[in-house]
Design goal:
- The chain has 248 residues and is mainly beta.
- It contains 2 helices and 15 strands.
- It is globular.
């Protein structure tokens, strides 16, 4: 009986070895998870993009009116509009993004007094799904309301829809500024946007839509009626040092 027992042991050993990690792979069924399941670990993968404007790789023209008024010089993107026109000069990313932090570093010049001109740093999906920084001299009525000094420009931080909300503040002209937007999801899966200027939160709004609405990133200078009191009399411009995106 001993030889038979030995042979049986060898066979059992071979079977066990064939089921080990080096042999047959056994796929365990995944446990179902829900949004409230604490065992479901969030992804730690992050995506980071930096456009430092050595060139315009990853961007495309989005100009709506007038000439294509932009160029790269000294690793800065210069965008401008011409006086006595309704130029709307823009570029946008070729890819779309959702939750995360979006940052633009922008040189904001003096800009023409009373000019209807705006520097834009914004996210766009549709007219009802748009999140903006619009920077300009501003209407005199708005400047009075904000007690703007002679060296102040007006910044409008706006959700164009769902819901429509606008927040206004001041910044100093003739300086570099860093503008960020942070998009996070609430417990219902809807975006909450925070506008952050030079590292300080300036405004926040709860939106009623989520990641089905993906955004392209825009840089612009546009002659727009709501940012001043008369058609621009001067050439207005902005310098974009970089644009950065980092997912949550």
């Amino acid at each position: 009986m001993k030889p038979k027992i030995k042979i049986l042991g060898v066979i059992i050993g071979l079977l066990l070895h064939s089921c080990s990690a080096g042999g047959i792979t056994i796929n365990k069924p995944k446990m179902p998870t829900t949004a409230n399941d604490n065992s479901a670990k969030p992804s730690t993968t992050t995506t980071a993009k930096l456009w430092d404007f050595h060139d315009l790789s990853g961007w495309e023209d989005a100009t709506q009116a007038g000439s294509v008024n932009y160029f790269i010089e000294n690793k800065n993107l210069t965008i401008f509009t011409r006086p006595n026109t309704w130029d709307r000069t823009k570029i946008k990313t070729t890819s779309t993004y959702t939750t995360g932090t979006y940052t633009w570093r922008v040189y904001v010049p003096e800009m023409g007094i009373g000019d209807m001109a705006s520097i834009g740093a914004f996210l766009y999906n549709s007219n009802a799904h748009e999140l903006d920084y619009e920077i300009g001299y501003g209407k005199q009525s708005m400047r009075n309301e904000l007690n703007a000094e002679a060296d102040d420009l007006i910044v409008s931080m706006t959700s164009q829809g769902n819901p429509h909300k606008s927040h206004d503040t001041k910044i100093k002209r003739g300086q570099w500024h860093t503008f960020s937007m942070e998009l996070r999801l609430n417990s219902s899966g809807k975006y909450k946007v925070s506008w952050i200027i030079n590292g300080q939160q300036a405004a926040t709004t709860q939106l009623n839509y989520g990641t089905k609405s993906k955004f392209k990133i825009f840089c612009s200078v546009e002659n727009l009626t709501f940012m001043g009191d008369h058609i621009p009399k001067t050439k207005n411009y902005a310098l974009f040092d970089f644009v950065k995106y980092r997912s949550n």
